[in-house]
Design brief:
Distance between the termini: 23 Å
Strand content: under 5%
Structural class: mainly alpha
Shape: elongated
Order of helices and strands: HHHHHH
Number of helices: 6
Largest sheet: none
Number of strands: 0
């Protein structure tokens, strides 16, 4: 996804991509698909990278403890709702083992939420009477 509706319409084979790309972005089904792909990317690609970064920071003895605590708190606060976070222990008060357990729990939750992206062959629409 480029974020450019004209480019996307051109790739889809529209004869007049500029107006069609903008028109397509107004369609609820296309908006829903864009949101679904963005969420899938967040859960399947970016969340695991963030967790790996946190894990590396937590395990690296050179990284200052303050940075480790801030990074841990950010991830835990963002993944769990405010009510869930309030019920648990603040990351700044957790031991290294507790932080590692939290990271493992977040990884499990991310993998449970992740949905497989099915690859399919896209058909290029044939120009219609109004293209």
């Amino acid at each position: 996804m480029t974020g450019d509706p004209t480019h996307s319409a051109r790739l889809a084979g529209y004869a007049h991509p500029q107006p069609r790309g903008s028109d397509n972005l107004r369609k609820p089904a296309i908006q829903a698909e864009i949101r679904a792909q963005q969420l899938a990317r967040l859960h399947n690609d970016l969340l695991p990278l963030a967790l790996n970064t946190i894990e590396t920071a937590l395990k690296d003895p050179v990284v200052p403890w303050g940075s480790k605590m801030v990074a841990s708190k950010i991830v835990i606060d963002r993944v769990y709702a405010a009510g869930d976070a309030a019920a648990g222990k603040d990351p700044a008060e957790m031991s290294g083992d507790e932080l590692q357990s939290a990271i493992d729990r977040l990884r499990r939750e991310a993998s449970e939420r992740a949905k497989p992206i099915l690859e399919h062959e896209e058909s290029i629409p044939k120009p219609g009477a109004f293209d």
